Structures are given as structure tokens and as C-alpha cells.
Amino acid sequence: MKWMAFWLYASLVAAAFLFNLLGLLNLYPLYVTAPILFIVLFLPVYFMNRQRLK
């Protein structure tokens, strides 16, 4: 199960990176593609570092 989550996350990062490259080529607005890449990179870091409240 962990390997499937890893490959899913890796494919999301790759897709967001390629979408951001299209934004850098002015095919999509950069203000749309950059936040998507940021969110894809930020969410795993957030979930790994958050503390559970009891």
C-alpha cells in the first residue's frame, strides 16, 4: 500500500511539473500552474510534519 501511495505521489509531482513547464512556455497562465505545483509539493510536507491533537 505504501508503494502505491509513493507512485501516486510521484506521478502527481511529475504531472504538476510538466503542467508548470507548459505555463513557462506561455501555453497556460503561470499564475494557475505555479500554485498547483506548490500545493502538490506542500501537502505531503504538511501532513508529515503536523502533530496530532489529543
Write the layout of secondary structure elements.
Layout: H1 2-24, H2 30-49
Helix pairs in contact: 1-2
Description:
This protein has helices at 2-24, 30-49. By secondary structure, the chain is mostly helical. The protein has one domain (2-49). The longest helix has 23 residues, at 2-24. The mean pLDDT is 91.
What are the main properties of this structure?
2 helices, mainly alpha
Give the mean pLDDT: 91
Q: What oligomerization state is this entry in?
A: single chain
Q: In total, how many beta strands?
A: 0
Instruction: Indicate the percent of residues in helices.
Output: over 70%
Quickly count the domains: 1
Unreliable spans are: none
Please report the distance between the alpha carbons of the first and last residues.
27 Å
Q: What would you call the shape? A: flat
- List SSEs in N-to-C order: HH
Structural Rg: 14 Å
Q: What is the number of helical segments per DSSP (H or I, 4+ residues)?
A: 2
